[in-house]
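$ run holo --ligand "magnesium ion" --emit tokens
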Amino acid sequence: MAHVDHGKTTLVDALLWQSGSFRANQEVADRVLDSMDLEREKGITILAKNTAVQIGGTKVNIIDTPGHADFGGEVERGLTMVDGVLLLVDASEGPLPQTRFVLRKALEARLPVVLVVNKVDRADARPAEVVDEVYELFLDLDAGEAQIDFPIVYANAREGWAGFAADELAPDLQPLVETLLATVPAPSYDPEHPLQALVTNLDASPYVGRLALLRVRHGTIRKGEQVAWCRADGTIERARVTELYVTEALDRVPADEAGPGEIVALAGLPDVTIGETIADAADPRPLPVRSVDEPSLAVTVGINTSPLAGTEGDKVTASGLIGRLERELVGNVSLRVRPTASPDVWEVQGRGELQLAVLVEIMRREGFELTVGKPEVLTREIDGKKHEPVERVAIDVPEEYIGVVTQLLSLRKGRMQQMVNHGTGWARMEYLVPARGLIGFRTEFLTETRGAGIMHHVFEHWEPWHGELRTRPTGSLVADRRGRATAFAIAALQERGSLFVGPREELYEGMVVGENARGEDLDVNATKEKKLTNMRSSSSDELVRLIPARPLSLEQALEFIRDDECVEVTPKSIRLRKVELSATKRQTIVSRRKRERDATPA
Ligand SMILES: Nc1nc2c(ncn2[C@@H]2O[C@H](COP(=O)(O)OP(=O)(O)OP(=O)(O)O)[C@@H](O)[C@H]2O)c(=O)[nH]1
Ligand SMILES: [Mg+2]
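-- output --
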């Protein structure tokens, strides 16, 4: 476990190679466990995955978890399957918000920790300081004395080297492996206890259907045997284990039986869900269902209602949409789906913008057309008072940007917790900021720091509602009619702001075609043709300098939109639009709001 990009999946590669899981000449991709298309494209882990290596006579099951905060639910679930954790920390970046989040969870679960200071080969590595920062983090999280007494290993995961001093690495991972075997105990179990295994994940196989992934706590599970299936609703059914697999490196291999500590996949339970227990048929004892952190962010997801609906995707119905969302819920414990007042729209709740954007991205690749609303934070009543989620934010910027970042975050009600200057020209600042204030912040932050700043955030706790917050300071340029954008019109509009669309793109009334440099929205005609004259077009016409359009990615679009806007997502396009497309109706809404405001006595 670690913060994003600190090298977990790379370390697993090295462990797989060094344990002889591959043939010497075998072609194996880097970060082989990151097997999903989106994982490879984004270069991050999204789903936790398990693998296993044989070290001497010991089988070690390994779970590689994602480091991005939005996928924290995967980490929490992974923790229910392990007997110890490797905490990876980048030797230059040090502990970051997600390091804190995952360590807190591991300490709560009372799991032994081995600290791996990774990437010691970096030119800017500062391993001694980073170790001190980790000690501080343990103290800060109220770790017990025994917990603070963790072993430390230094590593270069990319080369597959490890050692007990940062400048003395062995040419293999032996020092790490030794420490791991000495620190993490073998699975403990009661030999008298009947079979008990918790379903922690799901998968599907084209041959045998749904697979339940589970860790065996006590007893032995056998292929072909009758078991008790303790369901989430409290009922107990009988089922037969039709197939049983254990993991070896990247493969699932059939097994006849598996004992305590094993992580197995089994078939035979058609609609099993996460959190259910597989137990002894004669003496079923369900395990308690562990809860994971609640979602803190929501978006609405509905069918595509734009004038271009149905032209680019083949999955456009409400029943198809809800069916797909429900299927997602089965395997993803940190998501929730709720109905809304509209029968074609649902609210999807999750941990963060990236998690929700990844779901939408996967659906669009499957052929769905969707309308996605502005991300909103979820609030909660605590002691009769409205509370909102607050995030811990770590920001790294070149010193000259300290001022502007401080300003930006104070507008968003951020409170500085700490500022450290490593003396390298860069500063690290830590803030607590209402999650609401972070929606749309990344774009502004990157613009203001000329792309140099780095920021990470993770849920910290709930705080009483902080009152009104400033959002995006600019308005939108909104198309006032259907048609294709023309170079002529765009050349004129680019003086007003920056455009998301280029010539020949199809537009409709109410579609957001660009960002207005001024605060209010502006209806524009982006389809205007140059008036034809008798003269042949002079060459100067063709030389109009068009600034290339700035199409927004899905995540950027979700960050950008305001309350009265939403995003149209199809397999081919991402379009920003007004919720209310008709310019006349939008005008009426604006004037009614204004009248109401004027009518309220100050
Ligand atoms: N210099 C250096 N780079 C490393 C080392 N280990 C990993 N990297 C690089 O760091 C980047 C991130 O590595 P990953 O293994 O994907 O990191 P991760 O922790 O699995 O990331 P997430 O799963 O997305 O949280 C890759 O470009 C690796 O090549 C190392 O020891 N030294
Ligand atoms: Mg990874």
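-- notes --
The chain has a mean pLDDT of 90.
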